[in-house]
Amino acid sequence: MDRLLVSIVEARDIVLAECGPLAPVTVALADSVGCVLAGDVISPEDVPPFANSALDGYAVLASDTTVVPVEMPVVAEVAAGAAADRPLAAGEAIRIMTGAPMPPGADAIVLVERTDRLDDGSRVRIHETVVSGQAVRNAGDDIRAGTTVFTAGTVIRPAVAGVLASVNAQKIEVVPRARVAVLSTGDELIDDGSPLGPGQIRESNKTMLLALVSECGADAVDFGVVRDDEAALEVVLREAADTCDVIVTSGGVSMGDFDVVKAVLSRIAEMQWMEVAIKPAKPFAFGRLRNTTGRRVPVFGLPGNPVSSLVSFELLARPALRQMMGHRGPLLRQGIAAIADSPLRRGTDGKVHYQRVHGEFGADGRYHVTAGGPQGSHQLAASAVASALAEIPDGDGVAAGGEVFVYLLTS
Q: Three-state SS across 104-160?
């Protein structure tokens, strides 16, 4: 079996070249949050649709407040969602609530705190001179009809969804969330809570990967633990290819491995078996499995050691999933230059090391990191609460006080 030795950049380029954005779909606004717009959104109407009061107070003619204090009769009251039943005449005031339409004839609002209520509200004394337009929100102040509100590629965050609702965008064209099949294989894996037998271990990678898939905005689909049976695994993989956009497995990709994952994927999919010049997560497999419709579904074969599986997902699978879901910005997690408060040691071996570290922002505004404990690829517990991955080039490591580039796992 050919084995390709590549840098992390080369491996990521191979993956991203095969993982283009999914075909756009139209969804209800409520289902669009977190997705990426597939097309521009143009407002069909003004926001706000009418001139309205920016605060609680009294609608007046500004010219009537030139000399203050001044007393006026209160001839009407307008609440939000209602409209004045008569126009405002010179020398009159209309009580108005925030968001209520401006009465015809009125051109300014006097804040209620600048007034005195007289005669049980039938009159008002005004203590402030206002100018025309004061505290008035005109039609289209926020958005004009015909304006491009958002362009394709915009991530629909909660505030974006609020704007879309304000322009009556009830159906949204988006790049859909990727459906990602996650499965583990092995007779040794136990996931039902039963006592461990000889040679058995608790399943953990699938649980972790399902959560990582969900965290990056995709829909994780649990395909369970598949026993070491080639026919059974092929059935599961083909079902996953027919019902999901991506398949993620862990284990069976190391040089010395020969298990059902490698045997089946080598036979039914177009796979590249790589050795990536990083530690951990050196072994990695990527390919395409053609489903019954002819679509070539990406397959990620992640290494079986838990920390290696975590790191390879972060550096290779996560950016691919985000690209498939239409993200155009940085596909990796946020990266920043940090200060190492403790030495980050390593030896020369021709690889880039990704150490799990603990970090926080200091009083100097810089992000400071310390070593995150044991760095073995099997020691997930020591990595579970790490806040960043420190990228340490080949060499002797980073001395205390030195600068190191990190990816924030909490971003």
A: CCCCEEEEHHHEEEEHHHCEEEECCCCCCCCCEECCCCCECCCCEEECCCCECCHHH
**329 lies in some domain:** no
Q: Which domain holds residue 33?
A: 25-47+141-175
Q: Does 241 share its domain with 207?
A: yes
Please name the residue that has the structure tokens 């230059």.
Answer: 337
Q: Give the angle 386-388-393 at the CA atoms, nearest 5°.
A: 120
Contacts of 195 (CB under 8 A, 6+ apart): none
Write down the pTM of the prediction: 0.89
Specify whether 215 is located in the same domain as 146: no
Question: Which tokens in the block code for residue 306?
Answer: 């838990």
CA angle 366, 370, 375 (to 5 degrees): 140
pLDDT tens by residue, 93-151: 999 999 999 999 999 999 999 999 999 999 999 999 999 999 999 999 999 999 999 99
Q: What span, in angstroms and rounded, lies between the C-alpha atoms of 222 and 181?
A: 6
If one counts every other C-beta atom within 10 angstroms of the C-beta of residue 171, the result is: 9
Among 337, 334, 336, 306, CA closest to 319: 334
- pLDDT tens string 329-384: 889 999 999 999 999 999 999 999 999 999 999 999 999 999 876 555 455 656 67
Q: Which residues pair with 250 in a beta bridge?
A: 184, 302
